[in-house]
Fold this sequence. Notes:
The structure holds two protein chains of two kinds. Chain A is of the alpha+beta class. Helices cover about 50% and strands about 20% of the residues of chain A. Chain A has five domains: about 130 residues, HPT domain (Four Helix Bundle (Hemerythrin (Met), subunit A)), CATH 1.20.120; about 150 residues, Alpha-Beta Plaits; about 55 residues; about 180 residues, 2-Layer Sandwich (Heat Shock Protein 90); about 140 residues, CATH 2.40.50.180. In chain A, helix 2 packs antiparallel against helix 3 and helix 9 runs antiparallel to helix 10. By secondary structure, chain B is of the alpha/beta class.
Amino acid sequence: MDLTQARSLFIEEALGLLEVMEACLLEIEAGDATAGQHIDAIFRAAHTIKGSAGLFGFDAIVAFTHIVESVLDKVRDQKISLDHDLCDLCLLCQDHLMTMIRQLQDDSIQLDLHAGEQLLARLHLYLDGKPALAMPEAETAAMSEHWQFDVRYGADVFRDGMDPMSQLSYLATLGTLTDVHLSAEFPAEHFDPESCYLRLHANLASEASKQTLEDVFEFVRDSSEIHITVPKSISEQLAQQDISDEKLGTLLVQAGAVTPRELQQALQAHKQQEIAIGQALVQQGAVPPELISTALDKQKATEHKRPADFQFLKVEARKLDGLINLIGELVTSGAEMDSLLSELGNSKITESFSVLNSLLEQIRDGALSLRMVQIGESFSRLRRIVRDVSKELGKEIDLIVEGADTELDKSMVEKLSDPLMHIVRNALDHGIEPTELRLYKGKPAQGQLKLSARHEAGSVVIEISDDGAGLNVQKIRDKAIEKGILAPDRDLSEADTYKLIFEPGFSTAAAVTNLSGRGVGMDVVRRNIEELRGQIQIRSAIEKGTTFSIRLPLTLAIIDGFLVSVADTKLVLPLNMVQECMEFKPGLQTQGRNYLDLRGEVLPFIRLSDIFRLPGRRLQRENVVIVQYGSDRAGLVVDALHGELQAVIKPLNSMFQSLRGIGGSTILGSGDIGLILDIPQLVQFATNLEMQTCHP
Amino acid sequence: MAVVITPKADFLVVEFEQDLSIFAVNELFESLKSVPQADADKVILDLTAVSEFDSAGLQLLLWLQHSAPAKSFTLSHGDNPTVLRVLNLYNLNPLAA
C-alpha cells in the first residue's frame, strides 16, 4: 500500500474533521446551537483524528488529541459543561492540532511546543480538577502493581489446537507470574470434553509492553475474552506526564492504555449485555476510567462512519480533471462532427447526432458538477476569522451567512478563500467602528457582517457587507493623490474612486494593525479574482456600510457559447450573458453616438470591429447581440450570428494574459480558433474609451 | 483403553494411561462418566503413567471433581515431571485446591 497516499488522505481527512469541529464549536459559542447538539460531532472528530494518527504512529498527535478527547468525553457525559472558557480552550486546541497536522505536510511550519504544553495543562484542570471526576478510591486500590490477566477461554480453544498452558508458560518467560488461578465454568449438563471451559487469572510482574503481552494471546483472541490490566505504576506515570507531548505519546503507545482488540471485546460486551462499554471495562478493571472514553468512542465512530461512506466518495482531483479534459476533447470533436454533418445535409444522421449531442451536454454538465462544492466550507473558515478578529479588536460582531449551499467549482473555492479572508478582515478592522463609536453614532453596539452567495445569470455572486462607516470618497481621493496613484486634477466618479483601493500600495488605515493595512492589500484581492475571470465591485454609503460584491463565472472549463463572426474572425460569447439578438439598423443610432433605442430604453453598444480593429467592409446587414452581466446591459454589433456551441475554454498563453476583453480561446468544429469574449471587461474597456473621448 | 477404573474396598482407583490430552479426552470422558455415580466416596486419580498432559486433560479432571462434589479426590502423580510441570504452572497442587 502506498503510505504517502494514505498519509495525505489522513491529513486531508483530519483537516476536514478539524473544520467540522471548529464550525460546531463556533456555533455553540455563538449560542446558535447547544452543546448537546454538537458534542458528539466534536467528540467524533477528535476521536477519529486520534485513531487515524495512531495508525500512522503520529504519537504527539495521538497524545494531544487523547487529552482533548477525554475532556470532551466529560462534557458528553455532562460531568462538565461546555461553557465559554472551555469552548475557547477547545478552539485553541483545535488550532494547535491544525498546526500539528499541517506540520506533517510542510516541515517549515513551526509548532509552538510551549503553547501545546499550556493547553494540555489547562485541559488537565478539567480532567483532574472536578471532584466528580475523580476515580473512586476502591478502584485505585484495586489496581495492582502488576499486569493482571483475566482470560475467559472460548469453547473452541482446544479444538483450534490451542492450549492455555502454552500461553501461560510463555508469560512465565516474560516476567514473574504470581497468583495464577485456574477455574472452570462447567455447564450444568452436556459437558463436552473437547470444549474449553477454563478461566485463567494471573498476575505478572514484567517490563514487557502491553502489545507484547497481548500478542501472547493472539491466537485465542478471536474466540476468547481477554482482559489485561495496566499496572498501577504505568497508570500513575501516565497521569503524571501532564506536560510533555512527546513523552506522553511514547508512554501511551508503550503502555498501550487500551488496545484495539480490547475495544472490540468491549463492543461485544456492549451488544450482548447492553451495558455501556466504559462501564464494562471498569467493571473488569481493564482500564482506569479516564481511559475508557477511548473505548466508548471507538464504537461511536464505527456506528457513525457507515452512513457517511455511502454519502460521499473520495476521488482524486487528478482523475476528475482527466475526465473533464477528455469531455472537453469530446465536445470539440462533437462540434467538428456537427459542422461536417451540416455540410452533408443528411437529415437522418443529423437527427441521430443531435440526440448524441444532447447526451454529450448532459455528460458535460454532470462531469462539471462533480467539481462543484458548496461555498459553505469557505464561509465557515471565515466564521472563525470573524470570531478571532472581533475578539482581538474588542468589537462585537454579528455574522450572518446566507446561501452557504451555493455551489462553485472546487478550485475556485480554494482560490477564493484568501481574497475573502482579506476582505472580511478589512471590513472588521476598518469598516465596523469600535463599539463606543457605534453607540455614539446611534447604531446598535453589535456590528453586522453579512456573507452571502447566490447564483445569478450564469455566475455566482458573493457579497460581503458590513454596516460600518462606509468608504469615505474624499479620504480615498486624498490618499490616492498623496501616494501618486491619482493625478490631483483627475475627476472620478464615486464608483471609480472606490476602485482606487484596489491599486497596489494603497492603504487608508492610519495605523498598521496586526490584521490589515500591511500593504499585501486589496490589489492582490483584485488580481486573485480576476485570475478567476471574475469581477469585484464596491457599493458604499457613508455611515451605512460597504458591500463588496464578487461576481464569478460558474465554471472554468467548458461553457455554452454563442458563436458570432466579425469579418473573418470568429468570436464566442458566453451564452448565459446573451439576452437577445436583433437586426442592427444604423438609423437607430442617435447623433452619431454609440447607443440605440431598445424599446424605449437607452442601450449603449460597441462595434466589435472597431474595438478589435478588425479589417473588412461594413456589411449591409449587421446584427446586434444584447448582453447582460449583473445589472448592466450593452449591445455588441457583429456581422453574422452562427448560433450556439459548446466551448471548451483553453486559457490564453501567458503572453496575452493582460489582453483586455478576451477571456480565452476555443477550438471550433471547423478547426478554427474562436476567441471567447470577456464581456464585463470588454464593456468596461469600451466605457473607458468612451469616457476618454468625452473628456480628452 | 486409555483409562482403567478399578473399584477397591471403599475407593475407586482411576488409572490413566499415557495420553491425557485433547486427543484422548472424548474417549476418557465416556469412561469417566460412571465415576460420579460410583458408590465409593474416595477417588484416587493415578497420573503416574501419563506422558501427554495438557489443559484439556486437566479440564477433564476438573470436571470430574466438579461433577462429583461429594467425593474426595486424591491425586497421585508419582513425581511424573509432565504432570508436575502442568500443575506447577497452574498453581494447582494438589488438585483438590
